[in-house]
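Hey, can you fold this one?
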Amino acid sequence: MIVDCHCHAGIGDAMTAPWNTDAPIEPYLRRAREAGIDKTVVFAPFHSDYEVANRYVARIVRRYRPRLIGFAFVHAVRDAGRILAMLTRARRWGFLGIKAHGFEAMPTRELCEAARALGMPLLIDVVSRAEVIDLLASRFPGVNFIVPHLGSFTDDWRAHQRVIDQLVRFPNVYTDTSAVRRFDYIVEAIQRAGARKVLFGSDGPWLHPGVELYKIGLLKLPAAQESLVLGGNILRLLRQVPPITQAAKQSEKPAGRMAHTQNATAIGPPQLSSYLSPHQISSNGVPVADYSESEL
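Sure. Predicted structure:
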């Protein structure tokens, strides 16, 4: 099974660049199907309110189930004080991971503690500031950190090299291959850290998933290692996400912004009236959400 671990979906609201305006999932899905990609992890583009954006992504995931797997986007500073509540709701919608972006805010202790409490992997774009991972991974060994772009979308070789070192040193640090143009660093990452630490990602819909997938074939890995990179690794991490416990449900408190968020139906789906059982397992072993038609 081929799983793309990195794709955006939904609508942004700043409208100053493609990544905060619109991430149309339909063109991506056509390209992914043609490339042979079976499932895709999706999360919102940049947005001023990730409660709204995550609800919209939940509706997209439901529409295209079981091809899509949701991750919840969080702004670690702007969402301070409500992160656990946001992520608990996202887990109830079937989301299995977290996305944060250092361009907006680096992960805080609150975000990492929430990820640890819910057992969710955290995909964090460190925007070439790979040194941050040394702090996060060492202080939160129970959180699996996925560092996209091998640490740098902007082709910073120093960040690539440091993330490779972190893959070797920290058992809870992983990377994805999306937008990595310096191909030999992907080769080095697998040679030094092993195929179990590298995940295929595309950064769709803005990058073509077929082009990004082709890079993996050029690695000419043994079949077992290629299978790990193409889907085995991300599926292993997602299967480690525990079901929502009663304690986690009781820990959720109304957030200060929720009155505004729940009324923002022009962008996001309406408030859920009931919650799904979030850890059902499909026949192929992938955790899936089981939404009823009335929930989103």
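The longest strand covers residues 3-8. Let me know if you want another pass with a different chain boundary.
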